[in-house]
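[scheduler] slot 2 assigned
[scheduler] job type: sequence-to-structure, two independent chains
[scheduler] chain ordering preserved from manifest
[runner] begin chain α
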Amino acid sequence: MYSLTYDLWNIIVDEAADAYSPLFEEMQRTADSIGLSKSLVDKLKQEGAMDVVDETRHFLLAIELYDDGIGGFKISLMISESPDAFEEIKERAAAAHDVTFEDVRNFEVEHGMNMAEEILDRIEERYSVNAEETGEGIVFELVVFDSENLDSNNLMGNGVWGVNS
């Protein structure tokens, strides 16, 4: 009988998270190609979101306005994945190590763990992409600009805020 160990669990979680690497690389390239400007921010403030299509994917560029008294906001590039596709990635990662879906479920129950949560956490840690399970699937969010974290917005400059634009 093959037994699932904590070390093997972590390997499976890593491999499932890494299966999304091409998507996150594409998200980053797409985000890098977006020319954030005051006019784009104004358009997003009016519409809330807009479609961004690259050569193979359809992303959503969305703005979240902060109620911070200074007009702060966050702009994110997002894409969602179906629950079935996410389950398939988990199952393939486990099967690559001769671990069945039943083995995973039993390990989760026995140790109070949740593989989906672990994979999403690993994605956030490893790729700096927020990942959240919703009723309709998994939503991946790459923050393009966040006024609350100006140190990480070096590509955006003052143009987003309307200074010197």
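[runner] end chain α
[runner] begin chain β
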Amino acid sequence: MTDTTSRSDAVWSTIEQNKRTDRFIRRVGIAAWSATLIAVLGYAIIVGFQVSAMIKLMAVGGARGIAVGAAITPIVVVVGLLALLIAVLATIGSFVRMRTTNLAEIQLRLAALEELLTARSHEA
């Protein structure tokens, strides 16, 4: 019984360690996404000033409409690539997380089953 309890404790200890690791990774991810959003926002502001200047030039005949499109293209590309990156990472993360959760659940169920079988064998 003690051996089973120590195995069960080891499983629970591993699960708690995995939870701590998950929390750390989640915090790092939040910090990284916050920095990314601030950088994209700053880039959008810079491009906004450029587009505004192009529109003012276009209004007085100093630039053509295609120049405004050329000025706004970088931010569209950056936001599009960022959205693609988020979609890919979210998909991969959800698959990995589901697998990890399933493995932890299987470990818990096996530990509980082992305890039940050990308890029954001691009763008989």
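[runner] end chain β
[qc] chain β: The chain has one domain: 2-123.
[scheduler] slot 2 released
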